[in-house]
Hints:
Strand order of the largest sheet: 6-7-8-3-9-10
Radius of gyration: 37 Å
Order of helices and strands: HEEEHEEHEHHHHEHEHEEHH
Bound molecules: adenosine-5'-triphosphate, magnesium ion
Amino acid sequence: MSEPAPPVLEKQRVRQVNLMSFVEQAVQVAEIAETLQVAETLQAVEALQVAETAETVQVAEIADATEIAKAAETVVSAKLHTENLDLFYGNFQALHKVNLAIPPLSITAFIGPSGCGKTTLLKTFNRMNDLVEGCRIEGDVLLDGDEIYGNMDVNHLRKRVGMVFQKPNPFPMSVYDNIAFGPRTHGIRRKGDLDEIVERSLRDAALFDELKDRLRHNALGLSGGQQQRLCIARALAAGPEVLLMDEPTSALDPASTAHIEELAIKLAERYTIVIVTHNMQQAARISDRTAFFLLGEIVECDTTAKIFSKPGDSRTEDYIRGRFG
Ligand SMILES: Nc1ncnc2c1ncn2[C@@H]1O[C@H](COP(=O)(O)OP(=O)(O)OP(=O)(O)O)[C@@H](O)[C@H]1O
Ligand SMILES: [Mg+2]
């Protein structure tokens, strides 16, 4: 049996034990405090993450909304616009679900291999396909938001949407009469009015100075390049808003081609131009937007800069790099 500790030592021992438990308690408090702090920090991190997620979502939503607004604006302000357009020649489907918006006062180029539907789509814009037996369309084609295949008067439509073909096709009559032909059929008879239209149209087609002394000469005697500009002048004489050009320079030499290209750029200040071309340099030189066609579909349509630098589809890239077609 051990002896009881002397009172002084016992007191000291009790104090020590008390001190120990005090330290333990302090440690516990410190631990609790730390846990709390960690929890709070975690909460703060979580809150930050939530805020970041919210911001990301918000930014994404704003981006989505901007995209949607942009797309809506393109469609609303489009001069020409197609929605789910299908076109059939008898049993053959030449266009598949074409959705396209063509902005006003700009040049849009149609590119793509032979037989992919470029001319077909161009012709739907002034109902030239009405003349083809067995041709049927489904979907919408709109000019300034009005349905072209609805109640629109076809003659009025063709006055608003003029067309220039691949092969120059002047009528076998004088330069003057070629241009006065359309206005005369629309009832303009006064010589002064006709003179004015002929001169204005020839000037707009950059042809007046060349031909002002040959207005009474037969148009078939002009060079190919002059004939094509005459056909542009003839289309302009009707006072159109849109000018459709189907490979207008494919039969021309480089100088005449340059003439027509300069003309197209100038005309785009006042007219909406759609041009079909097999010449990639031409599309890149003159157009604002380019649509790439393949097998009756539009693979993509975007700014010409984007189509020729960073197309969204590898088939577009292959075509413009000359890998097919
Ligand atoms: N009047 C028609 N009757 C039947 N099929 C047609 C008619 N016109 C065009 N097609 C067909 O529709 C498809 C598209 O022809 P489209 O003339 O639009 O092609 P494109 O892209 O203009 O070709 P290209 O570059 O050779 O001018 C082709 O398969 C063509 O054979
Ligand atoms: Mg064609």
